[in-house]
Amino acid sequence: MRIGVLGGGQLGRMLGLAGLPLGVQFTFLDPSEEACAAAVGRHLRAAYTDPEALHELARTCERATYEFENVPFQATAELVRSVPVYPPPPALEVAQDRLREKEFFRSLGIPTAEFAAVDSLEDLEAAVDHVGLPAVLKTRRMGYDGKGQRILMAPEDLQAAWEALTGPRTESSPLPTPRVEGLSGGLLAEALVPFRRELSVLAARDSWGEVVCYPVVENHHEGGILRLSLAPAPDLDPALEELAHAYARRALEALDYVGVLCVELFEVDGRLLANEMAPRVHNSGHWTIEGACTSQFANHVRAVAGLPLGSPRPRGWCAMVNLIGHRPDPAAVLRVPGASFHWYGKAVRPGRKVGHVTVCADRPEQLAERLDQLRRCGVPLPARAAAGLFRR
Ligand code: AMP
To answer: Which of 165, 300, 302, 334 is most buried as measured by Cβ atoms within 10 A of its Cβ?
Structure first.
């Protein structure tokens, strides 16, 4: 079987690695010259919407999938006419629009922060009356890693935030000029959630409708980028974990989904609020390569290829640390017991995810010790890790 993948970054690369033992081959459609997934499959270098490239992908592959959610929806809509595309394109369509995503969660009885659509400065004033302050103003589309967002603390912040995301209004152009590349379809205002922590839940569904859920993970971001995931999330109330799994199941079933789905959540006052979903393998699931019986990548490939899913059971306690614009000495990292080093083969640039380190342990205290060891050999850990993540 050959799977065509829209996107050829590190997620594609790890899908390719997981497919190898299953005898599954890959073609990655990616416009970039340095698509790092090319190391594990064929690189078809063209624009995502290039009709000839899409035709070639459909002709040579038995299934298609995508590895980041900003691929043009049109490319999946085109492909699905001649080859099964998993996850189904409607999942991508919902996930590409933060407003539709929140409405989708609400329609399934999954709670979210208060939100309101914003298409003008007047809308923004009304939205803030509805959601209250502080709030977050976000672009509906194309935002990722915290890009395309502004925090609103006071009524005086509204105009500046609006202009920062849309460009100033002029006489000749009363409509906002999009500042964010690809922005169309306006903005969204949300109540700023005073969360205790951020969590995510990954689940997979196969073509028979069987679902497996991974343990809920605790995530730490800095500058809008994921830095650290702890799996399973320490001290999580089992009732909340059950709820997170129920939410993931509900979303999977509503979309008649096939593949891995990630739902990002806020834990606040003993409740869970859904923030967003990613219809693909996710950075907060990288720990599953070493830390779970079947990795998210293996389960995504299995689901897309029409094979049964494997167990999501964790093998112990794990932490995954992203390497962002920085390469620590792999030898030093690998001397830490239970540590694995993943390098994506990308050029190192500031702010760029170039690899990750996973460390596994039998007990939370042992994991905390190993994280300390990793910090000493140059693996960047968020400030809170220093305070002892497992001794809240
Ligand atoms: P997003 O692009 O929506 O995932 O947002 C990126 C990050 O911004 C999240 O991981 C949170 O840390 C923060 N964030 C987004 N929306 C909210 C919100 N409504 N309240 C508090 N923090 C938020």
So the answer is: 300
